[in-house]
Structures are given as C-alpha cells and as structure tokens.
C-alpha cells in the first residue's frame, strides 16, 4: 500500500500552508486530512481496463489509421447486432451510452456557458495555471516524457489539448455521437494506447513509485485541474461566477471523466470535495525534476515557435505576457522550481486584466459575453488547427 510519502516535505507543506493550496482551502471550505487516504491510494495502481481491451482488440490488430477509422465509425453511427464488433467495443459503448442517473443537462449547460463566457481568460487559465502548474508534479509527467511528447513539440500538444477542451465545452457537446462525446472516447483510447505501449516498450517504468502509467488517480488529478484549478484561476483573474455556473463546471467535468472511464467515486461534485481529493493525491507527488523544467520551457517557448503571429516582436511579447500570468497565477516557489524566467513589471498585465474584467462584466450582458467568448475561442482553435493539420509541423 502506497503511503502519503511527501506529506512532510517542504514543497507539500509550503503549497498547502502558504501557497495556492492554502488559497484553494479558503476558496472551497475544504477540511483536509489523511483519514481517507487508504480509500483512494489503490487507484494509483488502477487503470481503465475496458479501454485497454478495445486497444488490444482493434488498434493492435490492424494499422493505426484503419483502427481509428473503425472506432470513429462506431462513435458517429453506432453499430447493429449484425456487425462483427469485438465484445470489448460493445462493452465500451454500453458504458459510455448508459446515461448516469445523476446527469443534469441544465448543469452541463451552465458549465459550458462559463467556459465560453470567460473567453480568453479560460485559455490563459488552462495554459498558465492548469497545464504548467501540473508540470510541477514529477511523477504525473512521466508518461509524457517516456512517450517522447517533447519531440512532438508544444504547439502540437497545445493544439490537441485546446481541440479537446473547446469541443467538450460547447452546448450539447457531450450528447451521444456529438463532437465532445467523440473527443472523450478518442482521448480515452489514446490513453489506453499510450499506457499499453509504455508497458510493452519501456522496461524502466517504476510502477511502485510512479503508479501504473496514466492511472485512475492521476486522471482524477488532471480533471480536477479542469474544474477546481480552472475556477480558482478565473477568480484570480477577476472573473465572477454564479453558484450554478460553479456547480456546472464540476458537473461537466464529472461527466467527461465518466466518459473517459475514471471511476465515479474519484469524480468530485464540488470545490470542497475536489480540494480534499487533490490534497491526498499531492502527498504522493515529488516536486519538479529536470523533465518538469523541460516541459515548462517547451510550453513557454511555444509562443516563439508558433507562426500564428506574423512578427517576431509580437511572439516575444506574447511569451512575456504568458510569463507574467504564470508568475501571477502560480506560487513563486513553483515558478522557481520550474525555472520560469524573471521579467520586469510582471504584475502589470494581470492587474490590468482584473480591472478590465470587472468593468467588462458590469457593462456587457451575459449572453453577449457567451457569444463573444465562443467566437473568440473558436478562432484561436481554428488558428492552431490550421498550422498543425500537417502533422509534421514541428
């Protein structure tokens, strides 16, 4: 049985006693302790067996693009009893098409609306808090490192994350056969494919310390990033949201997590639960290592490599703004560990953003903000997809 082995380490204590962890406790009213640790720890060695079986039956028996096409066909059109479909595939779709009793479509709508209404702040939050902050957890990054994600380049990785997030957070996106549903199933199978490939080819995988590759507990932490950490970031940037919108974000990601095969007992319903779950998980994660620093710098330098902006001075300025937001949103200790560069006047942009958000929120109607946010986010996604559709981009 794994223990909360880093609970007395300086990085853990600093985060929860004086850093963003302390702010999360204040934000959520969480009561953190280790009394439920043994209930959740086994999930460090638990994986999505249904997804793994589909990969073995479909992806490992034919060419990758043929397998992808076959799965895509099932997602979009379903299949009949006459079709010669592997049992594992039937099992996957039986689970994902079984609508859980707790699902509330109004809450899904509220969650989607907050994601759209927050416009580019949503994308800043995902990138400069959720994603780069996640790199501070050394064991969580190991699958990225061993599958050589760095070689693929940050532009491509960011494009894929953005594609998934945008498509999962639109109106009715998660209905069966819809685009968000499709992304959830495909992402689930990519995780299984990566996990089985790591197990097969990477002999040095340290299961005892790192858990199973892409295990259920790490998946929980990742999806708490999309809900709890995302909300905390929006708040830090001066956005306000209603109780229903807040519940909606948790509900939306609980359902996405369900579609991705994360066990239901790991999917929090609200910010209090999410913070308590996150506290337990962080106690088994060491701080940044050299791989974390490489990942963080790859993400920061993405602004320079990305040809969406035409001129070099624009790209340099964009990188500077992301660095300012990273210092503002993350703990100084985390930024130092990830070796985020020091820059001058780093509070100017975030503070201006807060002021702008407060004025904008008071002057512009909610519906207008939702429409505008959806349009702007779709444009960013389109720009990214245009430059990465040639998969040899990097």
Automatic annotation (TrEMBL):
Identify the InterPro entries for this entry: Lcp-like (IPR037473), MPAB/Lcp_cat_dom (IPR018713)
Q: Which domain of life is it from?
A: Bacteria
Which region is the signal sequence? none
Q: Report the residue ranges that make up the ER-bound oxygenase mpaB/mpaB'/Rubber oxygenase catalytic domain in this protein.
A: 152-343
Q: Which GO terms describe its molecular function?
A: oxidoreductase activity
PANTHER family annotated for this entry? ER-BOUND OXYGENASE MPAB_MPAB'_RUBBER OXYGENASE CATALYTIC DOMAIN-CONTAINING PROTEIN, SECRETED PROTEIN-RELATED
Q: What is this protein called?
A: ER-bound oxygenase mpaB/mpaB'/Rubber oxygenase catalytic domain-containing protein
